[in-house]
Amino acid sequence: MAKTIFITGASTGIGKITAKLFQSKGWNVIATLRDPSKETELTQLANVTVLPLDVKNTTQIQSIVDKVTSSVNIDVVVNNAGFGIVGPFEGTPENEIERIVNTNILGVMRVTKAFLPHFRSQKNGVLITVSSEGGLITYPFFALYHATKWAIEGWTESMVYELKPLGIQIKTVLPGPTKTEFGNSIFQSSHSAYENTFDKFRSSFLSEKARSTFQSADVVANSIYEAATDGKYQIRYLSGETARKHFSDQIELGTEEFHNKMEKSLL
């Protein structure tokens, strides 16, 4: 019997490619996005159901989860919905700070909490959050994005203690820099006091030349598939060469020296 995966943030990038990968491997896919009326590709695929979902809307989340779990057993949930903020923290408006916390942290927690009764009744299930290497290391001017990803890493690690005895796996996939449309949704803050330093960072990391070295989203989708199917109570899956190298360098060099190395290369 085919298994079923539920994915948030499936309109573009990693979410959409993950939906297509699982569909190609014979899974039933429930792909959710804020505005399904704009989706023309996933709706044409066999065994793919496209549903509306805004992870900031608790009522809608519960309604959608109740709807799908009443008719099918969900085997895997992928929390992929999210966005980024880049730029000086001091220049970030309060509403954008609240939005990233509401989406990247609380959104993941809301969806997870809504599915837990279903997974408990099944005595199994896999919960995967698409985190980031930025949940273990940091880049300049991504302070708020890092805050959300570090929060998810700590939350996930602690949740393992609660869920493992119930037969439920909870994991994160941590990609390095990836070529997706994610950059189009990034809010960019500004502040004149940080302009010179931010310009240096933009030229080293946010330039077209730098972006050309980013990994394909297919790499991340394959890591998600591994996490979903390997049957392991493994907490983290570093996705791509850059993420693995940065993590190993941080361990080898130590936090302070690794931070100095990143500062020299990016600023």
Characterise this structure:
This protein is of the alpha/beta class. It has one domain: NAD(P)-binding Rossmann-like Domain (Rossmann fold), CATH 3.40.50. It contains nine helices and eleven strands. Strands 3-2-1-4-6-7-11 form a seven-stranded parallel sheet, with helices on both faces. A two-stranded parallel sheet has the order 5-9. It is globular, with a radius of gyration of 19 Å. The model has no long low-confidence stretch (mean pLDDT 95).
Show the helix and strand layout.
Layout: E1 4-7, H1 13-24, E2 28-33, E3 48-52, H2 58-69, E4 76-79, E5 85-86, H3 94-122, E6 125-130, H4 143-163, E7 168-175, E8 178-179, E9 187-188, H5 195-205, H6 208-211, E10 215-216, H7 217-229, E11 236-239, H8 241-253, H9 255-266
Parallel strand pairs: 1-2, 1-4, 2-3, 4-6, 5-9, 6-7, 7-11, 8-10
Helix pairs in contact: 1-7, 2-3, 3-4, 8-9
Task: Tell me the overall shape.
Answer: globular
| CATH evolutionary superfamily | NAD(P)-binding Rossmann-like Domain
What is the SS-derived class? alpha/beta
CATH topology: Rossmann fold
**What is the averaged pLDDT score?**
95
CATH class descriptor: Alpha Beta
**Rounded Rg:** 19 Å
Enumerate the strands of the largest sheet in spatial order, edge to edge or round the barrel: 3-2-1-4-6-7-11
Number of strands: 11
User: How many angstroms does the end-to-end distance come to?
Assistant: 53 Å
In total, the number of domains comes to 1
- Secondary-structure element string: EHEEHEEHEHEEEHHEHEHH
Strand coverage percent: 15-25%
Biggest β-sheet: count, sense, barrel? 7 strands, parallel
